[in-house]
């Protein structure tokens, strides 16, 4: 079955790839002729300059950082404009909690002129998960992807029963109003184990804030680092490590207290 929309705009931020996998799985299940993908880690100037029209469906996916939309992602999203494009929101969290992130994502997108028709929270492997300290390790898994298909079915049902432009009731969404404050964070970033580094440059390529420069050595601008762990997860020699008292404490706490599997939820 094809939806009434000839195109889908897939807009996401995804430093370690879990949000990307989830929004793509939802889009795949919303049969349509074309999907335009915009990764907010890249230059997407065209997206900021143009108005997203009401005749295309938009899916916006963002990971949860400290119970909120990551600050730099909120700033990017606020640059979008829409003429009422029906929009599906997706927040992806690492099995602790999503707190105010979905509500905040809703409010940001409404402010840009989108019409939110559905919103969901899904679980992705925690950015700080390791084999030794697993936190939602390897998620989204097969069951999560099945849930993406179920969410897509409900969106399709809403579209095909003519409720497409019925906006989601904000009071249905969990979250504090006002949202909890962004905590102050110390100036820290992953470090490089020089003896293990082959200067391949992958860490610099995947860093969403351009915090890393690789020439004769790997230099990290700690002020630009958002602690996303993309460099740690993608380093082919495990030379990038984020290990210090603070992070070790988080990892210990998360892997001990948030072992129980959380499941996706959605609001349509
Ligand atoms: C700085 C930071 C803060 C995070 N805060 C939370 C949180 O508050 N709750 C939670 O469950 N997961 C949290 N996570 C985990 C991410 O939401 C999760 O790993 C998500 O799948 C990452 O998405 P991505 O793979 O698209 O980058 C945090 C991750 C980072 C890097
Ligand atoms: S990805 Fe790893 S090996 Fe490659 S330059 Fe960065 S730290 Fe060195
Ligand atoms: S340097 Fe910081 S912002 Fe850049 S990829 Fe690594 S953890 Fe993410």
Describe the protein in words:
The strands form four sheets. Strands 2-1-4-6-7-12 form a six-stranded mixed sheet, sandwiched between helices. Helix content is 28%, strand content 20%. The model has no long low-confidence stretch (mean pLDDT 95). It is built from eight helices and twelve strands. It is an alpha/beta fold. It has two domains: 177 residues, Rossmann fold; 53 residues, Alpha-Beta Plaits (2-Layer Sandwich), CATH 3.30.70.20.
Question: Main attributes?
Answer:
binds iron/sulfur cluster, 2 domains, 268 residues, 8 helices, binds flavin mononucleotide, Rossmann fold, two-stranded parallel ribbon, 12 strands, Alpha-Beta Plaits, 6-stranded mixed sheet, alpha/beta, single chain, 20% strand
Helix content: 25-40%
- CATH topological fold name of the largest domain: Rossmann fold
User: What amount of the residues lies in strands?
Assistant: 15-25%
The residue-averaged pLDDT reads: 95
Biggest sheet: strands, sense, closure? Answer: 6 strands, mixed
Low-confidence stretches: none
Alpha carbon gap, first and last residue: 20 Å
Number of DSSP helices? Answer: 8
What class would the helix/strand composition place it in?
A: alpha/beta
CATH classification, class level of the largest domain: Alpha Beta
